[in-house]
Amino acid sequence: MDSQTKEKRICILRGSPRADGNTNELTDIAQEELESRGAVVTSFTLYDMKLLPCRACRICQSNWSVFGCPLDDEMERIFDTVMTADLILLSTPVYSWYCTPPLKIVMDRMVYGMNKYYGEEKGPSLWEGKHLALITTCGYPVEKGADLLEEGLRRYCRHSKLRYDGMLAERHMGYGTTFMDAGKTERAADFAAKLMTGLQG
Ligand SMILES: Cc1cc2nc3c(=O)[nH]c(=O)nc-3n(C[C@H](O)[C@H](O)[C@H](O)COP(=O)(O)O)c2cc1C
User: Fold this and answer.
1) Are 117 and 180 in contact (CB under 8 A)?
2) How remote is the CA of residue 45 from the centroid of ligand 1, in Å?
């Protein structure tokens, strides 16, 4: 089976605390579209998981073939899924110009556990070549609300040897307003379709 016909695996990391909130509404539409195009999707709701922050012990740097983190939580499950995924889809509202705390925990744990750059000698990136993309929502206009998060992710991808496949960002006009509309629904489905096309190459 060549790379175009092989089943695509996608890991969605959901970082919104609101199960039926804006970011999850957009992400649900994208997930449906991905699945309708044959992707096998595993989705993690990070606020429901036990996830501890990186303690910078650097034990993960001593073994270049495993995640190797000694913290006792649910991160290993995410690591295993990411290792078999073609695309990692981050989903988060913007909080203080970046992602929410549990997604930041996962990003920190992976930037060390996946990138064996920080030991005595520089080792490999275990997730080199995987794709990464972002679905986000914010209160400011997108160019002022989501710009720093996107720039951070571009650098994160460059550093980790991941392929950055872009961002879907939508503005939330306030908690008294209805977030979803036909335009957002269409853009979420189109974004997912574009991600699938990017995985076929
Ligand atoms: C604690 C907190 C911090 C926020 N910080 C920002 C911010 O820095 N920039 C921004 O544009 N919106 C910010 N927002 C607005 C949210 O990003 C926006 O309402 C988002 O759509 C909420 O998504 P959700 O429904 O998935 O929770 C913040 C909201 C909260 C609750």
Assistant:
1) no
2) 17
Question: 151-174, pLDDT tens digit by residue?
Answer: 999 999 999 999 999 999 999 999
Do 111 and 61 meet the contact criterion of CB atoms below 8 Å apart? no
Over its C-alpha atoms, the chain yields an Rg (Å, rounded) of: 17
* Whole-number Cα distances in Å, 200 to 67, 95, 185: 28, 33, 23
CA of 94 to the centre of ligand 1 (A): 5
Q: pTM score, two decimals?
A: 0.97
Count the alpha carbons within 13 Å of 183 in the hemisphere toward its beta carbon.
Answer: 5
- At 100 the three-state DSSP class reads coil
Range of the domain at 196: 9-200
75 found inside a domain: yes
Residue at 2 is within a domain: no
Going by alpha carbons, the residue nearest to atom 18 of ligand 1 is: 138
Among left, alpha and beta (phi > 0; psi -120 to 50; other), residue 196 is alpha
Q: Which residues of the chain have pLDDT under 70?
A: 1-5
CATH code assigned at 157: 3.40.50.360
Q: How many domains are contained in the chain? A: 1
CA 71 – CA 76 distance, rounded (Å): 9
Give me ligand 1 centre to Cα 129, in Å: 31
